[in-house]
Write a structure and sequence with these properties.
Layout (H helix, E strand, L loop, with lengths): L1 H60 L1 H12 L15
């Protein structure tokens, strides 16, 4: 009779430990996915930062680019220039 309880105890403990390991494996997979997502976000943000650095460099050093943006985004014109607007009816 004792041997039967011993076998049941071993099975119960083994099952419990297996359950704990399975839960930890699932947690590890979730953490790995989260880490990979964060790394991809870091890469995306680094690329975006590089783009902004290039934009800043152009704005600081390239007068033609600065004038182009001022005209396109702000609607600025040089003194003596005329703007013609057409209705798209």
């Amino acid at each position: 009779m004792n041997f039967k309880y011993f076998k049941l105890s071993i099975i119960f403990i083994s099952s419990f430990l297996l359950l704990i390991v399975a839960i930890e494996v699932v947690e590890l997979i979730q953490q790995t996915r989260k880490r990979n997502y964060i790394y991809s976000e870091i890469d995306r943000i680094k690329a975006e930062n590089n783009m902004f650095k290039k934009e800043i460099s152009l704005l600081e050093k390239n007068e033609f680019y600065l004038n182009l943006l001022a005209r396109k985004k702000l609607g600025m014109i040089k003194e003596g220039e005329k703007i013609y607007r057409f209705d798209n009816d």
